[in-house]
Predict the 3D structure of the following.
Amino acid sequence: MIFVLILIINKMADSFTKEQRSEIMRKVKSDRNRSTELKLIVFFRSNGIKGWRRNYKLFGKPDFVFLKIKTAVFVDGCFWHGHDCRNTKPQTNQDYWQKKIARNRKRDRMVSKTLKLRGWRVIRIWECALNKKLPAAFKRNVSAKDLG
């Protein structure tokens, strides 16, 4: 009896059609990942790295832009961009999430390629590297002279 009641409640839970719910969810926009950006700001400031801008209007919406040296920095969330660093595989609705992550990765490649064709250097940092390998990511891509 309780099982039947739960099924009825679950079917009645959403007052929107599937199409209406999809439209609503498409309009939901993230306010960006501030915690990762704040970690990067701390890194920049503690290492005397200057010349960066946040929220700069550039194709692909990089997290940070260094205009003087035409460098765009993206901090990619491990879950949203499909990094294999830890248990970031979705446990429910796997088909949907696999397609979503594949689209994100395809868009990342397209954005990087487009910016490079426009003369920009692109640095992509995994969220998990913010605590461990951040200095190495910058040393590989940008000289200290460029950022000082």
Q: What stands out?
A: The chain has one domain: 30-147. The first helix runs from residue 2 to 12. The beta strands are 52-54, 64-66, 71-76, 121-126.
